[in-house]
Amino acid sequence: MAPYKWQTSEDIFRLFHSIGRASLLYDIQDSHSGNMARRWKNAQGEEMIVITATGSQKGDLEPNHLCYLSPGETDFGYYKASSETDIHVKILSLPGAQASMHAHVKELIMATLDDQPAPKTPPPFVPVDPLAFYHLGPEIPVDWFAVPSGSPEMAKTIPARLADHPLTIIYGHGAMTRGRTLKETFFNLCLANNAGYIVRLIERQIRSTRAKRQALKIPEKQENSLPPEAPLPVGQPPELEELRSKIKAAPDTYFHFRPAPYEPDIENRCDFPEEDEILKEFRKTGNRLFESRLSPFHTGSMSVRGVDYLLYAPQASMPYEVGGPLLKLPLVQAPGDDTELLLHKKIYAESDFQALIHAYVPEAEAHAHFIYPGEETPIEKIIPVDAEGSFMYLVIPVLPPKFEEDRLISLLHDYRVVVVRGGGVWAVGGLSLSEALHHPSSLREICLYRLAAVERGLDLRKMEPEKAKKW
Amino acid sequence: MAIPGYHGRVLEIDLTTGQIKIEALASEDVLLYLGGRGLATKLFYDRIDPATDPLGPDNVIVIASSPLVGSQAPTAGRGHMVYKSPLTGYIGTSNSGGTWGHTFKATGYDALIIRGRASYPVFIDLSPEKIEILDASHLWGKNVPESTDILTAGSTPGNLYRALVIGPAGENLVKYAVVANDKNRVYGRGGPGAVFGSKNLKGIRVRGREKITIADEARYRSGVDQAIYLLKQAPITKRLMRELGTAGLILLINVINMLPHRNFLDVNHDEDKVERISGEAIARGYLEKAGSCYLCPIGCQRHTAVKTPDGQIHQGEGPEYETTVLMGPVCDIYDLDYIIQANYLANELGLDTVTFGGTVACAMELYEKGYLTPRQTDGLEIRFGRGDLLEKLVELTAYRQGIGSLLAEGSYRLAAACGHPELAMQVKKLEIPGYDPRASYAQALGYMTSPTGACHLRGGYAVSLAFFGGTKEIPRFSLLQSPIAIRNMQNTGILQDSLGVCRFTGFSFAIEPWARIVSGITGYDFSTAHLEEIANRIASLERLFNLKAGLNPEEEDVLPLRFSEIPIMSEGKPRAISRENMIQMRRDYYRARGWNDDGRPDDSYLKQMKIERKKA
Predict the structure, then answer these.
(1) S-S: B210 plus which of A134, A215, B108, B353, CB 3.0-4.6 Å?
(2) CB of B187 within 8 A of CB of B178?
(3) Which residues from chain A sit within 8 angstroms of residue B589, using beta carbons?
(4) A272, A276, A306 ranked by CB distance to B484: nearest
């Protein structure tokens, strides 16, 4: 039996505490679920593994909820530190893995449920959004386990899965992931949950639209031809499977651009610490993007333009306690600029905007795939059907994944917010980040109301203000 | 064929010769400069020698309307006037609500250009049927309400006369005399009334029912619906302005340590005293009813009444925020009776209350420091807190009597005459309004770079957003963000002035609804990108005029030393704006404008903006 080791490290505790809290805020844990682990060297230079204690509340971790283990000894006193300690230790022995995390990614769990008899071999999950597709891969493994919690079977299968994938799904239980940092593991889990949410929204949208088509006796598209009186299909609707197939076959056609790889090395960089007020604005906006689910953790980007530089947050969605990099960069294009940063610079070069936000609003992402009953192609504009939305924006343009950048800039001038199908949401502020933030925030509500109308079988066309159709 | 929204006609009157010309409005001017401020600036720039004496016959006054005026767009009834300012020596550009601007458009002209000098007092009588220059000898010497009543007598329902007039202050060439319509709505800052007076022009009477055409009714209408809705959504345009008027800002501005005190020496007030001059206090003790300019759903006008010392009830309009603050705490006065009575008299005699208040505050500091002597003031003890002197000083100033002849020159010339120009709180000789620049770097930069001098309306109304902007709120103490923010705010103001709409609509929305409305009216695609470009062009043309008129950016795009040397406390920290910070922000602002680091637009930028440089 290993000696009972209580240790404290302020930095480690702060990290675990902040990620734990964020995971609860993002609703990928229940009060006591999940676990987090990372490699760590103590003051004596000894390799250790820090892991959350079993049953600890991840949203309210205390210092004594962190267990410090040696890699070779996973018992902690009389108990395992966590029921999944052995799995974490094996994951952390993978090359490059410095952290691991398990969470109840509910949306993804729901999106992967099936009613096949057990034991079963579920198909991999195919994301239809660019974040999960590029960061987690085009096929995320799903494994069914007879004992889906801390079992030797899991300890064998999951590390093997994570040798080839950044994240793997435990059927009916959640996901496990590895990363170079704990933040990266949280990033992966948020993307996974978001991907499940988007797929579920699209699925509901398709089912409701199909029902509406049947109610209106509108013939189906040829490739999905079903007689109007046919019952709704069980499982994934063919339209969703068709979309997934097409995306897998040609992702570059269906997504605006490939997001830059997650950068753990710049996690805590801040290039403008002296600008108190702007820093506050960035942190406030980043926190709102995260807490209000306007973009998954450390995704999207935001900037405020100076005269010849921009203040840039490349991982815009960031809870207060975790933060993210805040950079000061030249406004002119520079070698190494990624696609997203280049677009910020181009928009500024061709406008007077003060602030820009690029966010992956999941409701907008899903709704951009909506096809009105009887029509063949996805929507080109989102027309609000709620009071505030319809007066703030008569319409919100939806661009296809591939477009001329000048078109985006022109639309931003006239509408201030633009959805890109497979590419997130771009929003501008004439004067401030706060102004820019209002757009994705309103857009999320606008999409929620429209999605609800579709789900309830209402006729959106009848609800949309006539005047909006000219815009 | 005129572009929809315009009549396509420009009227030019030479008061020296009596010549009247009607010219076609150039489509290119419309597409490049829109209307209102932009169009007036272009017509002005093309016709004036920048070196001309502002009070000489060669000064040119241009009044221009916008394509929205004549439509049902909310607040779109405003007019804009451009002239060379006798107070600053640079461009004067002033905007007014009321009803005159709308009626002027209904005469069938888009712009009126006035040059020359009549040999005797005259007024212009303008309607679709006739244009006349008529004798105004019987009006000379009469105050604003009297002149207005005489000129508008004989109105019939549905065919009303509207009058734009000056008072005795304009006739006496007070350098900050106003031109008033509806008796109390004024083209206020920089002395347009003196320019009228120098031309022996008492006023302009208009009457008309000419209508504009609208190219795309549905597009126009949807923009109007949207604008009206948003104005009714935002608390400040829906409720605060109507209930409390602009003075409703006083308590709020004080909360953010931005309410100036004693000629901007500090921002420290006794809370109880501030309450006494607040919008709430006006509403409780003086307000009879709120009022609105033409087509305005906001309704910020204050129709008030005050009991005079002899027990009479005196009715009038005001006070607005600026008047209350400049005649109030800036002079260390917290008595609304004094402020309101002085405000009424200033309106009647035709004085800009902002510059008047700033000048009196300067005089008070000069007096207390012994630089202005009792001999110069004819024994008047012009000390801080002397509210009892306000009305008297208004009268002396408007008639240029005694110390009034010095006060009539504005604070800079007054302080310079006393050997202490540094005590004038001005930029480009225009007095600073009621928002202390140390409490908002963006507002400070706005004062520094406004083409008309320290004006919150031309320099960018940044302070309003600092507190009321909601989603548009910008950091108050950011050196990095202020230059672009203020450039954008100035551009929004330029567009509002060029569209003929009220600045307060900016509390609810920026430009997008206006872009839809103006595109619907004209049938041209005035996207917001296009409008931004127009605003940048107008700003550069105004700059070009000022540079030609002798502006020295290094020396004149700055705040007085007081704001660098004496910090105020705001948000728990001492706040001053060092010269170094001013220079940094100013340089970044110039760059944001596309100008050189010395604040001059170069030839390539002017070419890009399609601005033709005036020949030397």
Answers:
(1) B108
(2) yes
(3) 307
(4) A306
What's the CATH code of the domain at B279? 1.10.569.10
Residue B488 within any structural domain of the chain: yes
A375-386 confidence digits (pLDDT tens): 889 999 999 999
Asked if residue A228 is part of any domain, the answer here is no
Q: Which of B155, B179, B206 is the last residue of a domain?
A: B206
Region A198-216: mean pLDDT is: 88
C-alpha closest to that of B227 among B501, B531, B4: B501
Q: Per the domain annotation, does B118 fall within a domain? A: yes
B261 lies in some domain: yes
**B469 inside 8 A of chain A by CB:** yes
Nearest to A307 among B226, B230, B588 (CB): B588
Do B481 and A304 count as a contact with CB atoms less than 8 A apart? yes
Tell me whether residue A5 is in a domain.
no
* CATH, residue B539: 1.10.599.10
Are B472 and A306 an interchain contact pair (Cβ–Cβ within 8 Å)? no
Measuring CA to CA, which residue among B425, B358, B418, B371 is closest to residue B560?
B425
Which residue out of B231, B472, B480 would a mutagenesis test of the A interface target, given it has the greatest number of A Cβ atoms within 10 Å?
B480
Whether residue A40 contacts residue A338, with contact meaning beta carbons closer than 8 Å, is answered with no
Q: Mean pLDDT, 10 residues at a time, over chain B (616 residues)?
A: 96 98 97 98 97 98 98 97 98 96 97 98 97 98 98 89 98 98 95 98 97 95 88 81 91 92 97 96 96 93 92 93 98 98 98 98 98 97 98 98 98 98 98 96 96 94 65 78 93 96 88 93 94 97 98 98 96 94 97 96 96 73
Q: Output the domain CATH number for residue B80.
A: 3.60.9.10
- B424 and B411 in contact (C-beta within 8 Å)? yes
The predicted-structure confidence for A242-254, as pLDDT tens digits, reads as follows 999 999 999 999 9
Domain co-membership, B132 together with B32: yes
B130 and B267 together in one domain: no
Of A275, A307, A437, the CB nearest to B484: A307
How would DSSP label each residue in A136-166?
Answer: H-SSB-EE--SS-SS-HHHHHHHHHHHHH-S
Looking at the complex, report in whole angstroms how far the Cα of residue A246 sits from the nearest Cα belonging to chain B: 37
Query: Could you tell me which chain B residue has the CA closest to the CA of A470?
Result: B219
What is d(CA A436, CA A446) in angstroms, rounded to the nearest whole number? 16
Environment class of residue B458 by beta-carbon count within 10 Å: exposed (0-12), middle (13-18) or buried (19+)? Answer: buried
Range of the domain at A435: 264-470
Residues B132 and B158 grouped into a single domain: yes
Q: For chain A, how many structural domains are there in total? A: 2
